[in-house]
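In the design runs reported in the main text, the only information available to the sequence generator was the tokenized backbone. The following block is the verbatim input for one such run; it is reproduced so that readers can re-run the procedure and compare outputs position by position.
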């Protein structure tokens, strides 16, 4: 799209699900011309995952698909067939990036692996996303966000110390991998600009999730210690936790500002004691000594519980923030969509879709002048077959009839 940062790029996306399409979505959001290639008839499998309006499955109304595929064009193509592979290669003649998410080795079986294409398409950036990467003993293991969280230590350190490990909600491993693929593609494009050569970008969901590890690897490397689960709180400070309040939940995280320095004690009050309405608390060891709070966390929780139970989340957060303490309201989806801050920043955008209707979509992951493309809806299944196969590649109407009969498109 003219005027946007990636408007000179053509991307061919043969990825399905979440991670690969999220990479394509980010490229498209900043102006790249992304052509999404889906299997004929069934399309990307995310079309079947929902959520659906009224909980009625419909390939054109999957909320997940609509979210992940904004700003893209869409064609259908069976790349497992000779005719489909031929068309894909013709598309690659004018492409800068290929994004794929098949299991390692599958693209090579179709003669579409990086080694199969690199001599013909010397400037192509070939991005592969898979559960465990293109090499190594786990190469052929099946996986998803759940397995990525399990094998990255993130799951091991989530939950209560005397209970089983937990995972976080949603699909963070998939989105982290998609984000890493986007960054890897941009880095490879920058390298190509300098060296005039393409390359293979290999993304592993496991490794992407492992980069979110906070202390586990360092603790083991430095101390030989294995970090254990410790509820929902920060490992080295307390409180830094989720607490119930009158109408929901809040993150209580006073940080360094929340407890008194000697100067604050001399002057009479710390932010946390002001929040709780009792400046005498500054004389208590639970306020003066962070290790006392850490070891006696039940006492501290009991101390702040009456205030939290008698106040609403909005009041608590606004008062704490006025005292420069980073408290936060734990939002549900409705609260997020109606949040005044995100409304002011224009984060959510409404788009009309011919089948799904008018819906709100999350916006760009960063804001910068003249870099992002206006948001457009996700494509219908095979919506741009004619525009691309007829208009760009020179096929005829009769060719398309034959290709449809053969199941190629």
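Verbatim output:
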């Amino acid at each position: 799209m003219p005027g946007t940062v990636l408007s000179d790029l053509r991307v061919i996306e043969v990825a399905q699900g979440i991670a690969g399409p999220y990479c394509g979505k980010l490229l498209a959001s900043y102006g790249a011309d992304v052509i999404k290639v889906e299997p004929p008839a069934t399309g990307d499998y995310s079309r079947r995952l929902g959520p659906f309006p009224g909980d009625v499955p419909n390939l054109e109304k999957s909320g997940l698909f609509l979210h992940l595929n904004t700003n893209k064009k869409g064609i259908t193509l069976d790349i497992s067939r000779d005719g489909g592979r031929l068309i894909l290669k013709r598309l690659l003649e004018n492409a800068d990036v290929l994004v794929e998410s098949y299991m390692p080795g599958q693209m090579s079986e179709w003669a579409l692996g990086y080694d199969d294409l690199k001599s013909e398409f010397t400037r192509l950036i070939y991005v592969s996303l898979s559960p465990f990467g293109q090499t190594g003993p786990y190469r052929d293991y099946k996986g998803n966000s759940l397995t990525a969280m399990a094998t990255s230590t993130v799951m091991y350190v989530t939950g209560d110390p005397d209970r089983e490990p937990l995972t976080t909600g949603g699909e963070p491993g998939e989105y982290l991998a998609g984000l890493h693929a986007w960054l890897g593609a941009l880095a490879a494009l920058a390298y190509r600009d300098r060296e005039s050569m393409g390359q293979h970008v290999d993304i592993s969901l496991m490794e992407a999730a492992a980069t979110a590890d906070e202390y586990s690897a360092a603790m083991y490397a430095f101390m030989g210690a294995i970090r254990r689960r410790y509820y929902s709180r920060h490992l080295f400070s307390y409180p830094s936790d989720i607490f119930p309040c009158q109408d929901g939940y809040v993150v209580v995280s006073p940080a360094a500002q929340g407890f008194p320095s000697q100067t604050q004690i001399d002057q009479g009050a710390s932010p946390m004691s002001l929040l709780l309405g009792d400046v005498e608390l500054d004389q208590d060891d639970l306020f003066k000594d962070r290790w006392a709070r850490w070891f006696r966390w039940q006492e501290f929780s009991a101390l702040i519980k009456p205030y939290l139970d008698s106040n609403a989340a909005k009041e608590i957060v606004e008062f704490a923030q006025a005292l420069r303490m980073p408290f936060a309201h734990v939002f549900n989806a409705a609260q997020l969509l109606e949040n005044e801050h995100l409304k002011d920043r224009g984060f959510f955008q409404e788009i009309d879709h011919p089948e799904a209707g008018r819906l709100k979509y999350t916006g760009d992951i960063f804001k910068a002048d003249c870099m992002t493309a206006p948001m457009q809806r996700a494509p219908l299944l095979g919506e741009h077959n004619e525009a691309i196969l007829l208009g760009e590649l020179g096929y005829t109407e009769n060719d398309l009839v034959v290709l449809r009969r053969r199941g190629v498109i």
